[in-house]
Structures are given as C-alpha cells and as structure tokens.
C-alpha cells in the first residue's frame, strides 16, 4: 500500500508518460516538416535546368518519405526506451548477437531491399507507370525499399515483395499505338472509303491532343466472310491507345454514315420449302 501512495513513484511514472507523449508529438512534427522539405526540394529541382522526369520525381519522393519515417521511428523507439530507463547499449549488443543468428533467415528481406534499390537506381519503372509483372497488371502506386504496390484497373492494390519481381513489362515509357479495324461491305467502294477516312484522320490531331501525329489508313487488312476490313493506326501518348481507339471508332462511324457507306452486320436468310408446289412439280 505504501508503494501506491509513493508520490515520487507516481511523479516518475507521470514524467515518463509525458516524455513519451512529447516524443511522439515531436516525431509527428518532424515527419510532417521532413515531407514538406522533400517536396519543396524536388519542386525547386524541377524548376532548374537539370530537371528530373515526373515519373522519377514521384518515385524518389515516395522513397525518401519512407526512409524518413523509418529513421524517425527508430529514433523514437530508442528515446522511449531511454525514458523507461532501459539500457540501450546492452540491448543493442544483445540485438547484434541475435541479429547475426537470425540474419541467415532474413535472406529474403535483404534480397527485397537490394532488388528495390536496383529498381529505383536503374529506373526500371516509377510511380504512376502502368506495368505488368507475372500475373499482376496495373498502375504503380508506391515503390519502397522492400515492397511495391500495384493498383489494378478494377481497384485492387497488390503488394509485392521486390525480390519476387523478376520480369517487368512497362507500358508507360514509350508511345503507344492505337489499332482500329473498320469493316465495309463487299459492295462498298474501297478507294472512296479510304479517301473519306484519310480526310477525317487529317482533322483529328487538332481535336485530340493525345495523338502524336496524324493517324494512317494502312489499307485492306483482311477479306472476311461478308466484309472487307480496313486498318487504321495512330501513334499516341503512353497508355492512351484505349481511349483513342474508342474515339476513332466513333468518328469513323459518324463520317461513314454521313457518306452513306454501310458497315456490314450479320444477316440471316430464311428459306421456306413449299411442299405443295414440290408435289405438283413431281406430279
């Protein structure tokens, strides 16, 4: 009972709790100021002659923010342990021995960190890129020292250890190509149709900034069962080929309708056998 009424003990506990709260508050402030400083540094760097691509800038900002959090968290843990009167040197010495023992079991962790370093150093992909690795495909949300986050088209976020990323297809580095096939009937005038399409395609780059240059009509791509297929290609900005393909189909359909050129559609021919006429003819 005397311990519960000991004012010095409660004072020391109260001071320890206050120190911990103060340490956490300062850590939060340091992280916030550090993030603002990192963003401002890259903002100034982007305005200088030695500019870094937006892809790489976003990646480095995310990485440095992660490193900042790890460093601050480590310092916070050490300061909290000191405020609790725990001997840090002895703890670190013991941790070194334990770390050496478990180091052999942490090979995957080391491999993830090394792989993450080379992904960033070699600029294999960056935040905002659309990539495919293994069975996963989507936009890179974050690249850390240990993991990479990929957000799929349907909204799922896949968290992959960097060491598991062996092969990567990056769709965001070079320009994309939109490919559209247009069908016309065999009765249609192919030279006239090609001329109409070429006139239309000359107008589109001024309407759609995603087009790098004027789309081209390559000519007859295939002779189908009931249609002649013409192919149009357009070089566009990275990952804009899906959008431009839809735009091309709409523009082509409207222009062909204006000139009365029919796009074929499946038809069914019904044949009815007249049994009565057949018997009379046989008679």
TrEMBL record:
<dbReference type="InterPro" id="IPR011014">
    <property type="entry name" value="MscS_channel_TM-2"/>
</dbReference>
<feature type="transmembrane region" description="Helical">
    <location>
        <begin position="20"/>
        <end position="42"/>
    </location>
</feature>
<dbReference type="InterPro" id="IPR010920">
    <property type="entry name" value="LSM_dom_sf"/>
</dbReference>
<dbReference type="InterPro" id="IPR049278">
    <property type="entry name" value="MS_channel_C"/>
</dbReference>
<dbReference type="Pfam" id="PF21082">
    <property type="entry name" value="MS_channel_3rd"/>
</dbReference>
<protein>
    <submittedName>
        <fullName>Mechanosensitive ion channel family protein</fullName>
    </submittedName>
</protein>
<dbReference type="InterPro" id="IPR011066">
    <property type="entry name" value="MscS_channel_C_sf"/>
</dbReference>
<feature type="domain" description="Mechanosensitive ion channel MscS">
    <location>
        <begin position="108"/>
        <end position="172"/>
    </location>
</feature>
<feature type="transmembrane region" description="Helical">
    <location>
        <begin position="63"/>
        <end position="84"/>
    </location>
</feature>
<dbReference type="InterPro" id="IPR023408">
    <property type="entry name" value="MscS_beta-dom_sf"/>
</dbReference>
<dbReference type="InterPro" id="IPR049142">
    <property type="entry name" value="MS_channel_1st"/>
</dbReference>
<keyword id="KW-1003">Cell membrane</keyword>
<dbReference type="Pfam" id="PF21088">
    <property type="entry name" value="MS_channel_1st"/>
</dbReference>
<keyword id="KW-1133">Transmembrane helix</keyword>
<dbReference type="InterPro" id="IPR045276">
    <property type="entry name" value="YbiO_bact"/>
</dbReference>
<keyword id="KW-0472">Membrane</keyword>
<feature type="domain" description="Mechanosensitive ion channel MscS C-terminal">
    <location>
        <begin position="179"/>
        <end position="263"/>
    </location>
</feature>
<dbReference type="InterPro" id="IPR006685">
    <property type="entry name" value="MscS_channel_2nd"/>
</dbReference>
<dbReference type="Pfam" id="PF00924">
    <property type="entry name" value="MS_channel_2nd"/>
</dbReference>
<comment type="similarity">
    <text>Belongs to the MscS (TC 1.A.23) family.</text>
</comment>
<feature type="domain" description="Mechanosensitive ion channel transmembrane helices 2/3">
    <location>
        <begin position="66"/>
        <end position="107"/>
    </location>
</feature>
<keyword id="KW-0812">Transmembrane</keyword>
<feature type="transmembrane region" description="Helical">
    <location>
        <begin position="90"/>
        <end position="110"/>
    </location>
</feature>
